[in-house]
Amino acid sequence: MSDALVPVGKAVAVLRFTAFGDVILLSPALEALRAAWPDARVVVGVARAFAPVLHGLGVEVLPLEPGEGVTSYARRLRHVLGDDAAVLDLHGKARSLALRALLPWAWPRVAWHKRDFADTVAVRLRLRPWQIGRAHV
Fold this sequence. Notes:
Helix content is 33%, strand content 18%. It is an alpha/beta fold. Strands 3-2-1-4-5 form a 5-stranded parallel beta sheet, sandwiched between helices. Strand 4 (85-89), helix 4 and strand 5 form a beta-alpha-beta unit. Helix 3 (70-81) crosses helix 4. The protein is globular, with a radius of gyration of 16 Å.
């Protein structure tokens, strides 16, 4: 069995648009990504307000502008990434799902899911308190 990593292409888009704390928690994930694929460009999709948090992490930031729709953002992301890219969706919400659907099907993609739908509903309806199920970092 080979220890070689699967190539991801020339660029990787990392999507995590909102939630300030979750954007801060991108740091170790981005470090691991840079270590695993040092030659790949890492382009992070994040809300304009949170873009400064990622300064100095060795990644490119493509901010989602206030009021910008997913079609416009997908067009800009395709332009920035080029033809050979992959997508890592750490947002896992409707907006990033729609965005992934608008990106080229040839691009490999992975989506992180914090918890399943039934668990989310139970927490939102206050049927039970939220509990961390695994270490997100």
